[in-house]
Amino acid sequence: MHSVPSYKTAYGQAFCGDSLELLSELPDSSVGLVMTSPPFVLQRPKEYGNLEQDEYLDWMVSYGRTIKRKLREDGSFVIDLGGAYRKGVPSRSLYNFRLLLRFVDELGFHLAEDFYWFNPSKLPSPIEWVNKRKLRAKDAVNTVWWLSKTEWPKADIRRVLAPYSERMKKLIADPEGFYTPKKRPSGHDIGASFASDNGGSLPSNLLNIPNTESNGQYLDSCRLVNASPHPARFPAKLPAFFVEMLTDPDDLVVDIFAGSNTTGQVAESSRRRWLAFELDRKYVAASALRFLPGTLSDDIKIGAYQKILAGETVDLTSYSPTPTLFEIPA
User: Fold this and answer.
1) Which residues are catalytically annotated?
2) Complete domains list, the chain, with CATH
């Protein structure tokens, strides 16, 4: 890239600037996965910015057009979109579905699969229709569109198997005590191999992931440098699911609305190359602290943050020669 990064690690680089311009600098057909969560269409203005619903679709389609050029033939584009209501009435906006249709119909993307992220810990919203007037249930599900450049993107579901339930563990240990191999009324032919231990169960497209982080390295670091944390962070388990399923080590993962750079941290720990684009320098500077060892002194962390905030490029490998790995919260 021609632009200068704000910081770099063993596997990736973070840039402060207009993400569409930065994305345009990448070679065509070079990206394995674009994993991102853009600002949502919301009625209440957010600190990190959000557009009116009528403007939003054209804005995002311009990104989609460039992303499609930059993806490899087997690459994927995964976009997390929160729900929204129409202005002033308890009636849902269809912007996330309209955006999906435009990506497919106008840009030629393929919908590999639709996912739904259920966040059971999400606070009741919108306030007017849920908390005050008690007219609607709280909105706790985001749509996550897995789009691909062709009908055959790289993918391996075996990398993201879910833990077996206790009942399934008992069935594997004693199959004869739990079921008889035969064809079921549904048409499924349940054979003896059904009791095989495959290391886990196949995940569904409903991702039950609480977003409950109230501490941890990123928030501790923000408190240390007196910085406001990015207000719209997704939990590490969400990008980790798609990074593991859709890419191999050394593939390039890009987040065009990086925010606190959870995607970059996940990619770093998974040995994927990554690029993060974020317009707000204070969020870029705070996100760098994710990659510093917790054993470093506070003065060193504050110094790195201040250098990035001042526009300098900081090589984080000088603080930690090997990638700083982290445990994805359970």
Assistant:
1) 37-38, 80
2) 7-162+202-318 (3.40.50.150), 163-201 (no CATH)
